[in-house]
Design a protein that fits this description.
74 residues, mainly beta, four-stranded antiparallel beta sheet, two-stranded antiparallel ribbon, 6-blade_b-propeller_TolB-like
């Protein structure tokens, strides 16, 4: 807790590259969508953030919260 960031780790590396930090209130879960975007549930901000892994680290999309929540086991 308290280290709200997403890091990218390449296979075989001993360190990760921070993709985003500081703008998430309470990230709870993440998963890949069908387009290979990384989706992060930022629960305290009531939003889902989408990261396109092919784009630079500053390219993100914030999605509107769904009208009905569905919890998925990851």
């Amino acid at each position: 807790f308290g280290n709200s960031r997403v890091q990218k780790w390449l296979i075989g590396m001993t360190y990760g590259v921070t993709i985003i930090s500081g703008s998430m209130t309470n990230p709870y879960a993440m998963r890949w969508d069908f387009s290979n975007n990384l989706l992060v549930a930022d629960t305290s901000s009531h939003r889902i953030i989408s990261f396109n892994v092919a784009c630079p680290p500053t390219t993100t999309t914030t999605l509107a919260p769904p009208s009905m929540l569905t919890f998925l086991e990851i």
